[in-house]
């Protein structure tokens, strides 16, 4: 009975509608990073507008049927969470233990990441795109028991995740998730090159807020800016910072484009 229930659950979360919605979520994830990349270019050119994912989602909400689009993005990302959790539970069977543990950890990390973004997209949609006045992540967590330690651990987690992404770019680790059979040589090479650039830039960009979180934890300073926008502004303030930030912004755009390929070729 338990095995039958488990099989039914597995079939449900791997069903065509859930997979299709998950692919919509990957497209949405790409669109968000295209917007973050575009906003990062504005920072490089001297505009200090918020450039984190929440800011990108608000930029979507401000345009025409943007709120309705955000609800579509939310549903797609939730389906993507379900998809990744299913892969964590039922995927990678028959692989060596080490590979299975690594792939499962990646699935869980992606599920958490997509879940956070789905929550943000839903929150922005529910508010009609109005800017949020909620306190930052660091401010909230600092108020919890052991808050500085938790903030520091979150920062370390971001740094490790960023390092994994940077490593995964040159080593083509991202190709493990794709099925490029039938894509053709030229398309496969294009996906690989765009993925290399995009994943490397993604890791560098998201590692910076991780460092800022660790600094905030060490200083016991909940007012320390720790978000993605703060990280990119730190880069922009350095010598040659605007040039470096422009390169990173183009890398984020490349990652956004890669997400479209990911939506097309992700293994179901």
From TrEMBL:
Q: Where is the DUF1206 domain?
A: 24-91, 197-266
Read off the InterPro entries from this record: DUF1206 (IPR009597)
The keyword S-adenosyl-L-methionine is annotated on this UniProt entry: no
According to the record, the segments passing through the membrane are: 20-45, 66-86, 106-126, 197-220, 240-261
Keyword Transmembrane assigned: yes
Keyword annotations: Membrane, Transmembrane, Transmembrane helix
Which Pfam families does this one have?
DUF1206
This chain belongs to which protein, by name? DUF1206 domain-containing protein
Question: Which species is listed as the source?
Answer: Pseudonocardia xinjiangensis
